Each structure stands twice: as C-alpha cells, then as structure tokens.
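#random but structural
TW: two for the price of one
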Amino acid sequence: MSHLFEELDYAVTPIGALSLRRRRDLRLGVDVFEIKLGDEFLMTSHFTASEVALGRLGVAACHGGALDVVVGGLGLGYTAQAVLEHAAVHELLVVEFLAPVIEWHEGGILPMGRALAENPRCRLVHGDFFAMAASEAGFDAGQPGRLFDAVLVDIDHTPELALDARSDSFYQPAGLAALRRHIKPNGIFGLWSDARTDQGFLDRLSQAFPQAWAEPVTFHNPLTDRPFTQTVYLARNGSGAGA
C-alpha cells in the first residue's frame, strides 16, 4: 500500500506555489493525485469525467481525418489522453504555462507515466496559451499562423473564475474572436468549466462563433457521495473566411 500522504514535488512559479501530492483514500482503496496552486486545487484524479469528455466531445465534433489539435492546459493529462484515443488525430500540441507540470509527465511520476511525453503524435509545449491565442503567430512556433481542427482548453476553473489575470480578456467576445483565427473552417473550440452552464458566457461565445452550445457532464463525486455537474462548452467556426 502507498504512503497515506506524500508531496511528490513543489515549485515556485510565476503565478504561485505549485505542488503535486499523492494521498491514499482508505475508503475507496485508491491513490489520489492532486495538483494545487497555492491553496487552490487545480486537478484531482478522484474525478476526471468532464476533462475526458472535453477531449472526446471536441474531437468527435470535428470533420474529416488527419486532425491537428491544440489542448490548452496539461494538468494530469486526461484531456490530452482522451484526444489521442481517436485514430483520426494526426498531431496534438499541449500548451502548458507551468514548466514543472511538463517535467512531471516527462519524468513519469503521474498515473499515466510517460504516455503523453513519449507519444509520437503528442508534443508538450511550454508557453502561455492565452498570449498565443491573442497573437498572430498562434500556437506553433515552427509554423506561425498554423490553423487547427480543434482548440480545447482546460486551464481556469470557469470563465468567471480565473487562476490569474493572464486570461482576463480571453472569455470576452473579442478574445474568443482572436482565438477563432487559429481554427480551421468548420473547426471546433472547446472549453472545460467546473460549474453548470453559464448562459452569459454561452451568449458571449455565440457572439464570437457562428454556432455554440453547452454539454453538461454529470458524474458521481466520491468526496460528497452525490452527483455533480460540470460543463463542456463547444463552438464551431464558420465554413470559410468571414463566415
């Protein structure tokens, strides 16, 4: 059996103290991995249904094959892993602002080991997703202006509850429209949120994209022993320039 509690890593980052913890849940008989930023929980392996749903729903909504996908936010890797389940995905770029998180995957200390770091279809990129989304160059430094079939984001808690000020303008119509420039015609934008559907954000998303909708994801929360609902927002780009 594992130690009841162990801090696997601790690092000071530009947005606060980051820690990776593993603890034993004696009630369920499993090891739980948790990422914290300061006093806030960023992610737990206790429940990952909506992170997985973001990857699966986002890719399923795409058209065609040989898909190029961006995931903003690496975390424990469940969204990226779900994207790579699809044989139609040609290349996945995962943009992560916190360098230690990439190092955890490269070092294999997380539940999925080095699966993402060693997958030839996956590239882990250290960078600021929000700055890239607002830029002309976009997400691939080797191919400035490159377009993607899907851009899926799991960084902030909700559109209204951000980790820091970097994303202040991203969730507004102008910020979303800037991101849209990096998505192919008919391509998909997806966003994870730790809350039920926010109609205000869905309205803003509809201002930036021709089509937008929300997919509630309800799962059993073992911490409260009750159902809990989070949201995956999806939007489709137009069929051509100016659409």
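TW: number two ↓
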Amino acid sequence: MPKIRWTNLPPSLREHLFDRVAERQIPAEDLYKPKLWRESEPEAPDGPWYKDFGSFKICGEGEFPKTFLLKGQAARGKSL
C-alpha cells in the first residue's frame, strides 16, 4: 500500500496547503502536532481520509494531503 506523501508534492497542491494554513490561522506550534505521525510514514488508504489533531484536521485522498480543516469543520472519509 502506498504511503501518504509529504515531500515532492505538486507545486499547486503545496501552495494550496500553505494557503489553507494561513487562511484558517493555524498556529505554527499546532503544526508540530502531526510530526510523529508523519514520521511514522502512514499508509495511504484508497479514497478520502482525515487525521484529527484536536485543533485542526489534515484531510486527503489517496497518497496526497489535500487541505486543513479547523476543529468543528466536518471531514469526510476514513479517520486515520
């Protein structure tokens, strides 16, 4: 099974992720929360997925992270 990609993302996707972090005003210290999870090289499920870190969620599809949601925003797909 493929792993969730964190490097070498398509430029437009990388830019979108940075835009969502800024738009949703996710503090830099909160972005360290998923560090250990990312380092574990989680497997990428087929279809939509999300990982809840309390104050925000990372949502993706397949091997790509797609966006960030704030606490209280509904995510769809498989919870990781």
